[in-house]
Write a structure and sequence with these properties.
Layout: H1 3-13, H2 15-24, H3 29-38, E1 46-50, H4 58-65, E2 70-75, H5 78-91, E3 96-100, E4 114-120, H6 129-139, E5 140-151, H7 162-169, H8 176-192, E6 194-201, E7 206-212
Parallel strand pairs: 1-2, 1-4, 2-3, 4-5
Antiparallel strand pairs: 5-7, 6-7
Bound molecules: S-adenosylmethionine.
S-adenosylmethionine (SAM) binds next to helix 1.
Length: 214
């Protein structure tokens, strides 16, 4: 694990995991809902969720894939995963598996590929986001779908707000470089995937980008 990854892991091992849902549950929910509604997710799909954290994406995904679908959530923070486990137990969700792993090193050991790969609010805090993205990509079958939702640098006159959005995301590991990496990640998606669409929200500082694997 790199020095930066260790720092991120420490952030999520501390107070952040305890209060995460309280501060994050509602803020991004409607944009996430729009992204999952815009996706191809359907009943019975197998979905790989990188940086699943406390599982805030799970209800959105479950609404689409139903009881016949399956979610595999991956995160390297045991504290965040413990919160996800509590949620899964309370809600009696039976089709979710959690894996504690670093997504920059993650290789799917199962022979069946996933229909959809998801990562929200994860890639922008990972310096080796390209490795993480390609690991997600390699786990998704052809004609499958990748859904990324994250913070990014706004451009034009809205760029004046970047210092504020970076400041707000700092306690979750957000940085200027990370928000800039999101722009590069979307360019990669536009080049390598088909039917790519991007939507921007919150003064263009949050986006989702969806595309199909070839
Ligand atoms: C801001 S939270 C996002 C959680 C969830 N996707 C959401 O939208 O609420 C970022 C998560 O990424 C995880 N994470 C960061 N770097 C990671 C890595 N290299 N491998 C696995 N998980 C990582 C953290 O542990 C944390 O749970």
């Amino acid at each position: 694990m790199t020095f930066e990854s260790k720092k991120i892991e420490e952030i999520y091992a501390g107070k952040v995991a305890k209060k995460y849902d309280l501060s994050m549950q509602h803020f991004f929910a409607r944009w996430k809902k729009l992204a999952f509604n815009d996706s191809s997710l359907k009943s019975g799909d197998r979905v790989l969720v990188f940086c699943c954290g406390t599982g805030l994406d799970f209800p959105h995904i479950l609404r689409k894939i139903g009881k016949d679908g399956e979610i595999v959530g991956v995160d390297f923070s045991s504290e965040m995963l413990n919160k996800a486990k509590d949620k899964i137990r309370k809600k009696k969700w039976e089709n979710i598996e959690l894996i504690e792993a670093d997504i920059t090193k993650f290789r799917d050991k199962l022979d069946k590929k996933f229909d959809v790969g998801v990562c929200t609010l994860g890639m922008s805090i990972i310096p080796e986001y390209k490795s993480a993205y390609y690991n997600l990509f390699s786990c998704v079958k052809k004609q499958g779908e990748i859904i990324i939702g994250d913070m990014q640098l706004a451009s034009g006159w809205l760029a004046r707000l970047n210092p504020l959005t970076i400041f707000l995301s700092k306690r979750y590991g957000g940085t200027y470089e990370g928000h800039q990496n999101s722009i590069e990640l979307c360019s990669m998606m536009k080049k390598e995937l088909t039917e790519v669409r991007k939507s921007e929200f919150f003064f263009k500082s949050y986006f989702y980008c969806i595309g199909k694997t070839k």
